[in-house]
Amino acid sequence: MAVPDFDPKDIGEDRSLLLVDDDEPFLRRLTRAMEKRGFEPEMAGSVAAGKAIATARPPAYAVVDLRLEDGNGLDVVETLREKRPESRIVVLTGYGAIATAVAAVKIGAIDYLSKPADANDVTNALLARSDELPPPPDNPMSADRVRWEHIQRVYELCDRNVSETARRLNMHRRTLQRILAKRSPK
């Protein structure tokens, strides 16, 4: 992860950053990368730890994973919004879906990034001004991949029930079974 060309003054005087993720190697890597960029990160590996830090020492910035072992990262976002409304929060997840992105933004996240996102993506999202549009992604998901992600999300929400998923997607059950049996598109 190369350090981008940005002015550390863009961060501001309060450089506190809360990183919440249950993937410990990723969390350590991101912490080191964000320190190099001038932030003062604090790590949390669970919803409970993230909420405790957000309550005791609400940070100016936060990067919160959506799915954690002990719950939903949106609970941490809500706690941060209550304790420090001006905090800039980015939700990071490996399970990208439009519905969760909308929910994250509605409760106060400024951006939503799908994994794998590197420290440059995170820094750009945290420091982006609201009147600026972020640059387009370097490698956006293909339409086939977006469709596959949506089907997987509905399948999980239906507790992996093929018949219920097919009904909700208005799709024949056998067609859905064939799609689920294939590998994910790139």
TrEMBL record:
Residue ranges of every copy of the Response regulatory domain listed in the record: 16-130
Signal sequence, renumbered to the chain: none
UniProt entry keywords in alphabetical sequence: Activator, DNA-binding, Phosphoprotein, Transcription, Transcription regulation, Two-component regulatory system
InterPro entries in the record: ActR_PrrA_rreg, Bact_response_regulator, CheY-like_superfamily, Sig_transdc_resp-reg_receiver
GO biological process: phosphorelay signal transduction system
Record-listed 4-aspartylphosphate modification sites: D65
Pfam families with a match to the protein in the record: Response_reg
GO molecular function terms noted in the UniProt entry: DNA binding
Role summary: Member of the two-component regulatory system RegB/RegA. Involved in transactivating anaerobic expression of the photosynthetic apparatus. It is a transcriptional regulator that is responsible for activating expression of the puf, puh, and puc operons in response to a decrease in oxygen tension.
UniProt protein name: Photosynthetic apparatus regulatory protein RegA
